[in-house]
């Protein structure tokens, strides 16, 4: 691991809180060397539990980087936690409002400044009954295409066994294994330079999330499903 990126007071405070939280699980990091040690990068991950940000922040920080999370704007209004999130470079995501475009602008700026931006394209904890990544928002594709930076897929599994966001059950004991695996950068050269249409954004989004899903299948040692779960219980089989 190279020299650790400096983070300042709020990053230090976040680390003091998140590291103990991450100890709830038995951490297993795989291929962490594929995470860039410096320079801009877009880290694309799945989302299965409210513990994911703490787990993922520690993973990234232990590898010398400070993650800039793209997170729902409501999280920034939570006392103390919101201050920690904003102070450590978090990027609020506004949906259904005139501020929605500002979310991507802030992420673009972070990438231009050489930061590592971490995004959960699903936008919330997956609603797939089996925990696979669900149909995702296309903002990740716009970020990936508009910035010539490494786009790194990663998956994490196990946090949902500690804290399940849907049945609200917290099961810290016995300690569960939490596995994080990093994949190779996704080659998007075939898509760059093309007119940015909704179809192109959907194709790139599905490509990125299919790589995340494949990594999750590797962790789970299970075959991955075809397509992505959508509202109403349907599964979209069309992918890029």
Write structural notes for this entry.
It comes from Actinokineospora diospyrosa. Pfam families: Acyltransferase. GO terms for molecular function: acyltransferase activity. This is 1-acyl-sn-glycerol-3-phosphate acyltransferases. Keywords: Acyltransferase, Membrane, Transferase, Transmembrane, Transmembrane helix. The protein has helices at about 10-20, 50-60, 80-85, 100-110, 140-145, 160, 200-220, and strands at about 25-30, 40-45, 65-70, 90-95, 115-120, 150-155, 175-180, 230, 235. The chain is globular. About 35% of the residues lie in helices and about 15% in strands. The chain has a single domain (about 20-235), classed as Glycerol-3-phosphate (1)-acyltransferase. The chain is of the alpha/beta class. Strand 3 (about 65-70), helix 3 (about 80-85) and strand 4 form a beta-alpha-beta unit. The chain contains seven helices and nine strands. It has a seven-stranded mixed β-sheet, with helices on both faces.
Q: How do the helices and strands line up, and which of them pair or pack?
A:
Blueprint: H1 9-22, E1 25-30, E2 41-44, H2 52-62, E3 67-72, H3 81-87, E4 91-93, H4 100-112, E5 116-119, H5 139-146, E6 151-157, H6 159-162, E7 176-182, H7 198-220, E8 228-229, E9 235-236
Parallel strand pairs: 1-7, 2-5, 2-6, 3-4, 3-5
Antiparallel strand pairs: 6-7, 8-9
Helix pairs in contact: 1-2, 1-3, 5-7
Pfam family, one: Acyltransferase
Domain Phospholipid/glycerol acyltransferase: 41-159
Protein name: 1-acyl-sn-glycerol-3-phosphate acyltransferases
């Amino acid at each position: 691991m190279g020299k650790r990126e400096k983070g300042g007071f709020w990053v230090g405070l976040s680390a003091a809180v998140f590291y103990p939280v991450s100890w709830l699980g038995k951490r297993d990091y795989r291929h962490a060397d594929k995470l860039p040690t410096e320079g801009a990068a877009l880290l694309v991950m799945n989302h299965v539990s409210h513990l994911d940000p703490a787990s993922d922040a520690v993973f990234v920080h232990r590898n010398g980087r400070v993650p800039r999370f793209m997170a729902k704007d409501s999280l920034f209004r939570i006392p103390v936690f919101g201050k920690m999130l904003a102070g450590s470079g978090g990027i609020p995501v506004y949906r259904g409002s005139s501020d929605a475009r500002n979310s991507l602008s802030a992420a673009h700026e972070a990438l231009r400044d050489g930061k590592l931006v971490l995004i959960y394209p699903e936008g919330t904890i997956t609603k797939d009954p089996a925990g696979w990544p669900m149909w995702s928002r296309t903002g990740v594709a716009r970020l990936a295409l508009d910035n010539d930076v490494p786009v790194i897929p990663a998956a994490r599994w196990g946090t949902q066994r500690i804290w399940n966001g849907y049945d609200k059950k917290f099961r810290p004991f016995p300690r569960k294994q939490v596995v994080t695996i990093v994949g190779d950068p996704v080659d998007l050269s075939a898509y760059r330079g093309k007119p940015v249409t909704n179809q192109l954004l959907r194709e790139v989004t599905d490509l990125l999330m299919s790589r995340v899903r494949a990594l999750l299948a590797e962790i789970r040692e299970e075959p991955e499903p075809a397509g992505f779960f959508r509202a109403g219980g349907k599964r979209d089989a069309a992918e890029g």
